[in-house]
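Per reviewer request, we include the raw input and output of the structure prediction for the construct analysed in the revised manuscript.
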Amino acid sequence: MAMDKSKHHQLVEEAAHWIVQLSSDDESSRKTAKQKFEQWKKTSEQHRQVAADIEQCIGSIQKLSQTSGHKKVTKVALKAGLSSGKAYKHLRAGTAFAVVFVAMSGALFYLTDTTVAYVTADIQGQSGQWTTQTLPDGSRLILRGKSAVNLDFKTNQRVVELVQGQIYVDVAKDKTRPFLVKTSYGQIQALGTAFSVSYDPSATELNMLHSKVKVEATQVKTIQLHATRQAIVEAGKAIKMDQNGVQKLPELNVYNEQQKWQKHQLMVETLPLNQVLQELDRNYKGKIIFNDAALQHVRVNAVLPLDQTTESLKLLATVFPDLKIKQITPFVVMVSLK
């Protein structure tokens, strides 16, 4: 059942209180707030729904604040947001909660992707854009959103270090100089031409579009069942590489992957909604916030424009009437079930 608008505003107002308390510097205060928050969530199903969305917000903030390079700036942004919230506590549309996020969301979600590695990288992509670069050897590189790479081209090899985000590579042939893509989890040696690679602190993923590559995991702590340290990955295959080794992923739809990079279209067949939102988030100018567990059972069949996130979200809302899309600030969209 849809939540009454005035009731929803009241709950969002209360949620601002929990954002403050759960983000406290004092461990004892956080512990007490967490206990009371658990009780608050049990008040009703509506409380639980709002709480799930709020916890997603807090999770993003806490994850960012644990990064040493961002910790101090995050606290400053949060305090600035809270000060604004007190000064404008009578504003409508979520009042304190909305004010907090207007004040801090731009800074926080800019910082989320603006790491030291990004700032110092040789080539940097920009938020919401696709950056195409021709490399010194003639290879073509596409960076999606705020992705970043370093180049190390020598007489005996060509190395692209992916430090953040997602790239597509169309490799120029050079038998005397192997072409390598490296991340903190290992390296990918091109034995053919086209493939895409994504990297975040938890894993590296490879989608092979044409020919094949040789993959080698270099930061393995424990080899999981069915995982290896090395693998040859052919066209139509995908793998994940992390501290557990190289692991196979579901078969790749090569045409759909090509459409993503060449036409900027997301073509999905029975893909969980949370994964669809993850893809849209990569090209959004700010942040799309949602609860993974609440949306993973919804399956999507669609063709969505990656360069028009707002239109894609409207289309999803039309196809799924139970989907609620709320623009909290110019930088933040919250997606949940009604």
